[in-house]
Amino acid sequence: MTRARQDRLLGLLVRQGEWVTAGRLADTLGVTPRSVRSYVTALNGRLAGGVVVESGPQGYRAGADAPSALRAAVPDAVTPQDRLHTLIRALLDQPEGIDVHETAEALHVSSGTIEADLGRVRSLLTGTTLVLARAGSRVRMHGAESAQRRLLSRLVHEEMDAAAFDTHGMRRVLGEGSLSAAVHGAFETALRSGLGTRGYFINELGIADVLMHIAIAADRVAHGRALDTASESAGEAADEIASLVGALVDEHLGVALGAGDRHHLAMLILTRVVTPGSAVASTPPVDPEVEEAVRDLVSAAAEEFLVDLVHEDFIRRLSMHVQNLRRRAAEQAWSRNPLARSLKSTYPMIFDIAVSIASGLRDRLGMTLPDDEIAYIAMHVGGRLERSRRAEQLLTATIVCPGYYELHELLRSSVDRSLGQAIEVVGLQTRMDPDWAAIDTDLVLTTVDAPPAVERAVRIQPFLTDADVERVQAAASRVRRGRRLARLRGELERYFDAAAFVPALSASSEEAAIRLLGGKLVALDVVDDDYVERSIERERLSSTAFTDALAVPHAIGMTAVRTVIAVGVADPSIAWGDSRVQVVAMVAFSEADREAFQTVFEQLVEVFSEHDSVARIVRRATDFSSFLDELVAVIDG
């Protein structure tokens, strides 16, 4: 039983915020319900007298002490993960290396266990410039200081998984002598103040990551492992921030940074945390190569996905972001995005647009981006599309309110003020007995009883109350969802094919599943083998597991002869990236169905984001006919 798996279970419960059955947790984690029970017991044992996980007839849910349990420190080397961190710290801190037998004795484990841990260290070093060198029982780590720091930042990110940044997770990796919570808070306040007085706006998602790098730099310098001296100035802005960081680290952490570390941290701040405000003399120019690449990729994405993206202000902001991203990519110093998981599951099409742009950046500028960085691009894209998305979701409404002085006008003003972003009032009926059949708006907001046949009616008071507002918002949500799912039902019935259905999907990897389902599409002459290969390539860019139950592998580009969705149902679930899924829907879209892409893609993800719906479909879908029947039944509610 590993702490990492316990933490993952607790993280799932925290994110759900409601009761989750043992079976569902077991399927998500790829373990048995019995293991889930043992994890819950271990989690509740972390805090004496605390309630970390509640148990009940409906399963489990996060207790009041769940956040504290996620941050709870454990003694060094109690778990394999903690032992691994201790071992890596020793290798990084001791230039002369470590002795396997002495380390085993210090950690109260066998030499064979340390040998196995060294194997895990070697696997972590794959793809880096770091290597382990061995002479007898002594092992040393060789490599540039910058690469060693990247290894530490990677361990911190893995320790915190998808949780918010916290100093406890960082201290579990760097050691209890690193940045404490109290010092962290004072340092962050001082850094924010210093940047603000110099005319910079703070990027809230990036500052925690930079604080981690500052803590790593201070720790390494304190151990005599400073970066090389900077060769030349990186510009007036960088020099000013370098001076600020140096002074703050000296004051709060008691460490004197050299020129190399000061300028390294200044560049991290400039490329991750700050945006020039009005008090800054000038905005840094954008490299013409970067701006041209971004403009071309945004134009291509707008055409491919039929979205309104081509605006000069958006292209300029995204170009500045990509320019900073290019600098980070050169050092493989990626930023973590705590919203990556929720962005992917809630806005799958926006995330897919970001993946398309990221794919182009790889080809044009040589940058291969992780999910966290793709999520930042998705945030830029989502911000640009939000206005048009709101306009599309606006519903029409008619108010029925008997005329009495200005009562009806006051009610209309109240509705506009409280609900103007969700509905648009286009009609006002002041009769007690209006022609209900003639009212054709999406909603009818009435102060008098409507006939039962008027299903769109929402009863409200003449003087709008908070309860009225909530009822109207709920009704509007039902109408919007009903429309989306109705469109989805029509599209899916056209696109599914019995010959491309696998009722008992079993695959050893994502690639194997894609090849199996892709083979069904090739056999139908819908796509060729190249499409399957491009789907595998797309999967390597970013996992297509958009929910805890559904993966939607597909290639970039709508090149299918006709649109078909190949479906595999897995019971039990299969591993997919860092998740486990029960349904794999491989989508092949044709150019002719371009406009349907958003409807099908986003709403398919919405349907399979509801666990009860997934469980029902998986349990009853023994063949293609029953799968389609259950899917339609779920859509119809």
From TrEMBL:
InterPro entries assigned: BglG_antiterminators, HTH_11, PRD, PRD_sf, PTrfase/Anion_transptr, PTS_EIIA_type-2_dom, WH-like_DNA-bd_sf, WH_DNA-bd_sf
Which Gene Ontology biological process is one annotated for this entry? regulation of DNA-templated transcription
Task: Outline the extent of the PRD domain.
Answer: 285-391
| Record keywords | Repeat
Which domain of life does the UniProt lineage start with?
Answer: Bacteria
Per the database record, which ranges form the PTS EIIA type-2 domain?
494-637
Does Ribosomal protein show up as a keyword for this record?
Answer: no
Q: Which PANTHER family match?
A: CRYPTIC BETA-GLUCOSIDE BGL OPERON ANTITERMINATOR, TRANSCRIPTIONAL REGULATOR MANR
Q: What is this protein called?
A: PRD domain-containing protein
